Amino acid sequence: MATTTTTMFLLRPPNATRHRIPTHQNLSTTPGLRRFSSCSFSTRSLSVSANSRAMEALIFDCDGVILESEDLHRQAYNLAFEHFNVRCPPFSEPLNWDTEFYDVLQNQVGGGKPKMRWYFKEFGWPSSTLFVTPPESDIDRAKLIDTLQDWKTEKYKDILKSGSVEPRPGVLQLMDEAKASGKKLAVCSAATKSSVVLCLENLIGMVFRTLCFVGDDVKEKKPDPSIYITASKILGVSEKACLVVEDSVIGLQAATKAGMSCVITYTSSTANQDFSDAIAKFPDLNGVRLKALEELLQKAVAK
């Protein structure tokens, strides 16, 4: 299985439903944050030392933060299963992963090819237009998975290019606010270069000022902190002056291990994860103002 390239961009400013895998204070008084009554940390009475370090950089993860991508990936997989008429015994209809099942699959298994490989091993290798009878050799099974993944990837790109996909609420507003205040912005992602570029070009439309590929320098994926440590060095900003926006506990662990504070904007598939190490968590970034995040960071660093 190929290693996923880690990329950092500096920005200018079913039948499957029958299967199952075995298995804080609020911000209600802060301007722009009133609707987050269940958020983890309060900015009601922040006492910020004048010597506390101010935020100098705001760093975003991509998938799950800039866009809620997992359901788009799920749709693309289901379209691939339909296109190749992928049928797992004993079902006569093409495989279809529902949202609930896919969330569990994503959280417990992970990447694309491993998802399919796990599923087919667990529930039976399928017949398809590629193989009339279920493949039996490792070579044929690898060919099936590679073909499905390649087709799915192209379909996912088509979905992103369609103009029907919107960034998650509040993302663009927060980026614009950070840019206007002179903060450095970065997007750090373990996704492939092509996937992240496509996402940013179609959802954000921001021109890249600097493009830095760190895949050769960062050998470990999140939760290893290497990507964030590298980002800090390239940005020329101390880890303590960086604030990371993540959506998962794996990303949170990477940020905190790098010595950075992190806020969470969770998705439906990560909502139940343990975010106790985050300085705040939100269902999305709608109404989240930069000033409130700066105060949260200053308080966290001052501890």
UniProtKB/TrEMBL annotation:
It comes from the Eukaryota. Pfam families: Hydrolase. One of its GO terms (molecular function) is hydrolase activity. This is Uncharacterized protein. It comes from Mikania micrantha. The lineage of its organism: Eukaryota, Viridiplantae, Streptophyta, Embryophyta, Tracheophyta.
